[in-house]
Structures are given as C-alpha cells and as structure tokens.
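Tutorial, part two.
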Amino acid sequence: MKILITGVAGFIGSALALRLLARGDQVVGVDNLNDYYSVELKKARLARLTPFPGFTFEQLDIADRQAMSTLFRTHPFDAVMNLAAQAGVRHSLVDPYAYVDANLVGFVNLLEGARHHGAGHFVFASSSSVYGANARQPFSEHDPVNHPVSLYAASKRANELMAHSYAHLFRLPCTGLRFFTVYGPWGRPDMALFLFTRGILNDEPIKVFNHGCMVRDFTYIDDIIEGVVRVIDKPAVPDPAWSADAPDPATSNAPFRLYNIGNNRPVELMHYIHALETCLGRKARIDMLPLQPGDVPSTVASIDDLARDLGFKPSTSIEEGIGRFVDWYRDYFRIGETTTRTSASG
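Running the prediction step on this input gives:
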C-alpha cells in the first residue's frame, strides 16, 4: 500500500513508518519539525527511515491548507495515518492556539484530502485523555466521554466527532485509536520516562505528581505499532447492530470505529519508578507534588474490542519495556554505567 503518515518524525510516527517500510509498503511522511521538543531527536528518527527506497519525506504543516491539498493531489493514498498533533496535556494550558491549529484545523485539512482523493481508510490517533472526568474503569470505548478536563483532551474528542461526520456524510472509513501512555525507545523528551531517567542520572529530583498516587496503563511502543498496523489493514465498516435508539459511541451505522490500545495491566507510578531505578542501578530523588490541572489520577484501558476484532493484546511487561528504553537512552546519549552529571545532561 501507499500510506500517508503525518507526524512521521515523532515517536509513534517514525516507529510506524519503519514497520510499514520493512514489510514493503510505500510511505509518504509529513512533519513540520517544530521545536516543541528536540529537533535533533526528530531528525535522528528520520535518519532511520531514509535508507528505505519506499520512503518519501515532505516537511509540511498539516494546518497549511494549500500545502495539504497539493500533497493529496500529488499522491494517491490507500490509507492515511494521522499522528501529527500538538501533544501534551499541560502545554495546552500555556499555548491553546497550537492545539487549535494542529489538532483542529490540521485535522479537517486531512479529512478533506482523504475525502476528495479517495483514501481507502482514514486512521487517526486519539488519546486516553478523552475519558476525562470518567471514574468507571477500565475505560471502555462504549462509554460516553463528554467531560474532558484539558483542551488537549477536548481537541482529541473533537477529532473523533469530526471523523464520524465524514464517515457518515461521505462514507469515508474512519478509525480512531485511543492510545494509553506510550513509552519506549526513541520516546518524547517531555514524557515521564524520559524526564525521570534524565533526572536520576543527573542526581536531580524528579517531579512526581499527586504525591505518587497515580496509576497508568503504560503501553510499550511495539505493542502500539502492532495494534496500529492491524487497524490500518482493516478499514472500518458500518455496524449492522447499531441502533439510533441506544447509540453506541464506539461504532456507527457509518464506517466508523473507535479502539483503545493499552496494556490492560495498570501500573502504580511508584512501581514504574522503582523498575526504572533497578534498570539504572540508581535511586531517585523524589519531589512529591499535588495533582496538576488537566491530569487524572488513573487510566486503565478495556481492550476487549481490540482483542475480539483484531486478535491482538499488548503483552510487553513494564520491566522489559523500561529495560529496552534505558538501553536505548544510554546508547543514544552515549552514557556509560558510570555516567557523570555532565555527560548525562548532553
């Protein structure tokens, strides 16, 4: 297939492109290479993709309507995988317009391109954050999600609704994927595992919110990618059992579907930190802080639908996944077992 991946220089986007290229697909990757975090890390991810003859990179902003229109006219895509977004719950309190531009304007530009140029399947990254103030766990795609607690979450929920409207109006097959706390090698520097590792190696206090009383469904990158690939290969279809009298949020009489992709094995944050300490051979200095605005204390995914429809359940343990991340981190930053504060900060 010929597949468009937006956010291809990102954590998930680059890993997905690598997987699809390795199996023989053609990938057109789009990224604006913004400086929300290290551009050098993004370029290093891209460098893993350039040896593949089936890879084409376009430095574009999905919020640029004309550029996206030209892209879709130039390339007929069998599938679109939208991973481009302004990420981060806390940053949405600081720069809300970045979320409007990338997550709303950019998203409709992609929907329009897919609609007018016959993309066979429009797949997009949503987020576990859409569950917001929901307390019933595990979080199910079949539960209503009407109470987001951050603009980031609201923008991701808006994506789901926008995609459904295009599935309904134009019969564009659309599948949304609610990712749960993705981690692993080549990850984002603004996420907890990266920050914790850097802090521990530098002998600096790490910030632990809600006084450590946090639970997350940490999901290893390879498990996320396996789920995404299976979804891309299975375009959404209308649910014949869907009823307007009792509407199911996860399905539709249009070709639309939502799936959680999570590890389904929630982990207490302090256990996560202890596993990291074991891998690093060092103890963390911890600064306990209150729950931050926009955060939720617990996320747990129901993956019954994923297992039933796609025959897949994530299986990587926290210990294994953190171990692989630490090995990558040491190699990428050229850090030995006796790292000094100076070398770790590089």
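Confidence is low (pLDDT under 50) at residues 337-346. In part three we will examine how such features are distributed along the chain.
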